[in-house]
Structures are given as C-alpha cells and as structure tokens.
Amino acid sequence: MAAFNEHGYHGTTVRDIARRVGVTVPALYYHYENKQALLVTLLETSMSDVLGRCRAAVAEAGDDPVDRFSAIVECIVVYMANRRGLAFLDSEIRSLEPENRARYVELRDSLQYMLLDTVEAGIEQGSFTTPIPADASRAILTMCQGVANWYRSDGALTPSDVAERHVLLCLGTVGYLAPREPAKPASLRQARENAGARTRDSVG
Amino acid sequence: MAAFNEHGYHGTTVRDIARRVGVTVPALYYHYENKQALLVTLLETSMSDVLGRCRAAVAEAGDDPVDRFSAIVECIVVYMANRRGLAFLDSEIRSLEPENRARYVELRDSLQYMLLDTVEAGIEQGSFTTPIPADASRAILTMCQGVANWYRSDGALTPSDVAERHVLLCLGTVGYLAPREPAKPASLRQARENAGARTRDSVG
DNA sequence: GGGTCAAGAGTGAACGATCGCTAAGTGGAT
DNA sequence: ATCCACTTAGCGATCGTTCACTCTTGACCC
Q1: DSSP character string of A34-63
Q2: Per-domain residue ranges for chain B?
Q3: Three-state secondary structure along B173-198?
C-alpha cells in the first residue's frame, strides 16, 4: 500500500513490493496471481473495511438521520486520516482491468448510496434542506476521501478533530440549519451547536 | 494530457504520446527535455490557466464576497467539467521531482488562498457563518476538482448546470444562509434564492 | 516408530518485452 | 553554408513474469 501510494500503480515495481515485505519476488507470485491482483486485494479489502465501519457506525447512531449522517462522515474522515496510505484509492482505479474496476466501483457506490439514504431521510424530516441530495452526497464523499491527500499525523489536528470539522462542513453542504436535541458523542453535539448558534446569530 | 489521464504518469509511454501527437519519439525530445518536462508543462499551464480564469471571474464579480465566492466556485467547476483531462491533476503530482512539485503546489495554494480570502470577507460581512474558513476552503477546492473525476459530457447536465449546483453546495459548506440582493447571473441568483427559500421554510 | 511421499512455501537465475532516451544522419528553409 | 525540425536505428536498463529447484512440514502405511 505504501509503495502504490508513493509511486502509483505503474510506478511501483514488483521487486520493490517484495523488498518491503521482506520476501523474494517469486514468493509474491506464489500468493498472488500477478501485480494487478495485489492492487485489487488492497483496494477491495480497504473499501470493504471502510464500508463495514460505516455500516456499524450508522447502526450505532440510532434513528435520527442527522446523527446517522454525521456518523458516516465522521467514520469516513477518521478512517482516511488514520490510514493515509489510501489516498491513492480513487486515483488508481484507472489501472484496474474492467471487471476488477467494476467490483470496486460497486463498493464505492454502496457507500455513496448509504450517504444518500441518510440525506434523503434528513430532507424528509426537515433537517436537511438541499434540493440536490445526490450531488451533495457525491460531493461529500469526494471531500471526505480527499482528507487522505493532505492530512499529516504530525500536524495540529487529530483525526477526530478533522472528522469533527468535516461533520460541520458536510452538515452545511446538505443544508442543515437548526440545532437539534443533544446527540450522543459530546464532540459532535458541541460542533453542531456551534453551527446552530452561529446560524441563529446570522439569521437574527 | 489524454494519455496521462488514462494511464497515469508511469503508465504512459513516450512512444504513446508521440503517436498521439503524430510525430516520432526523438521529435518530442527535441522540444522537451524529457518525459517529466511534458507532465510539468501540462500541469503548470493548466493550473495557471484555471488560476487566471478565476482571477478574471473574481474581478468581474464585483465587491460582494458572496458573488466573488460564487464566481470562483463556478469558474473552477466549469473548467473541470469542460476539460476532464485534468482529472489527474492532483493525483500525479507525486510523480514530480521536488522542485517541480513545489512550483505546482504554489500555484494550487494561490487558488486556495483566493478562495479563503473571499470566505473570510464573507464571514466579516456576516454572509458566511463557518467557524473554520480554512478547512472549508480546502474542502471546497477538493470537491470542485473532484468534478473532473466523474463528469461525463454525455450526461444530463451541462458544465454550467454542474457549476450552478456546486455553487449551491459550496455556499452551504461555508454556512451561507440568508438570500441576498439579486446577483448578476440569473441562474445563480435563482439557485441562491432556492436555497434561501428552503432555509426560511426549515427555520420557520 | 521409522521410512516414504506429497504438498506448501520459498529461492536464484533468467526470460522476452518494453521502457526512457540518444547518436548519427536527412531534408528543407534562410 | 548553416541552422532548424525531424528521422531511422538502436542503446542499456529495467520491467513483469516464469522456470527449475530446495527446504520444511505433516500425513500415511507397515
């Protein structure tokens, strides 16, 4: 993953991967069919992982669409910040053969639909106001995945900090306005109330 | 650009580039020092181009931070939708040698600061309410550049449509709330008023 | 329990192909 | 005569991949 992330798929040599793992090249070919299989395995397990975590987070979040939405965003951002190696996720799918690419896109779409479901639920109950939930969901997923591109663990913000900020940003993107009843995580509730407070100040 | 976009930097052969251009390989080397120079030229001219367009758009937009902000977002998205070949922009900078990479990052930062300036101006006049303008600016730039990754010209939306929607989304991201005096482009004014209308409905 | 054998996991060496790049030469315009 | 734009041919290096082989482990039969 580190190698693919540093040099890209074509820029990474099988010899380099073997060296990092600490085995010889034919040993890699004993476990994986070819170079592409290495990338496919990496992409699919990673995407499945983040998808699974988001499903779990959403299940824990309860019934409120706003909580569910926040949980997904938080989950994705924390994952991306903690595992920066996945920055290349979306930029290397062009190196996949069609059927491998299709399987990966399917996983990614699951995540986007999950997001879209909560956004639409939020709109239905009046919490979210965006007239274009599908575009908003795609944009949010893009900006959350983008975190992996710039986050550095030696910076000032922890992954949780970044996640909290992105929850705030994303709530704005879907047109969330009014502050709500206290949510479960204290940090999220605080961020949301901050947004709500400023909202009220500005609206007057 | 098409070749780099399809296969990535390392995945593109000099022979392929030469073939697409319609010349032989040494003819390329007569005009460019090496393969990297081809990528550098492409990245820098493209980034300078979008930066110049944004500067022009912001100059035309007048003094209102909201108008200026909207103009930048619209400009970037239209550019990305029209020239999809630039999708690889941010994913190929890792293939650059350090000094080339630094020059490109500098250009990109100019764009981000331009965005940040308008966001902060908007906050100062009370139009935008986000407490984290820097994070918002970065997130917005990420999601606007992301348009190049999925936009297809054979889809239902024109570049202008997509730009309009992203203006709406991005206004939400920076915490824009109240509808304002009519702006210049009718489509933008309409989108903004839609957002405002729904905002008022929801807040009650 | 000792001998046999098959499978698993890995190695060193090398294959053909293709890569980025260049030396040397050609034709035409100034 | 000289430079520009470009060509053909081919260089050495490196790529993904495979061949043939070794070593270890564990199951099996007598």
Answers
A1: SHHHHHHHHHHHHHHHHHHHHHHHHHHT-S
A2: 36-203
A3: HCCCCCCCCCCCCHHHHHHHHHHHHH
Q: Which CATH class is domain B36-203?
A: mainly alpha
Interface of A with B in 109-148 (CB under 8 A): 126-127, 129-132, 135-136, 138-140, 142-143, 146
Nearby residues of A100 by Cβ (< 8 Å), 6 or more positions away: A36, A40
The architecture in CATH of the region A35-203 reads Orthogonal Bundle (1.10)
Tens digit of pLDDT for each residue in A27-53?
999 999 999 999 999 999 998 999 999
Give dist(CA A44, CA A72) in Å, integer.
Answer: 19
Task: Give the predicted TM-score (pTM) of the model.
Answer: 0.83
Q: 3-state class of A187 per DSSP?
A: helix
Closest residue in chain A to residue B148, using alpha carbons only: A142
Axis crossing angle, helix B65-82 with helix B98-124, rounded to the nearest 10: 140
pLDDT, tens digit (0-9, with 9 covering 90-100), for B146-202:
999 899 989 999 999 999 999 999 999 999 975 533 333 444 444 444 443 333 333
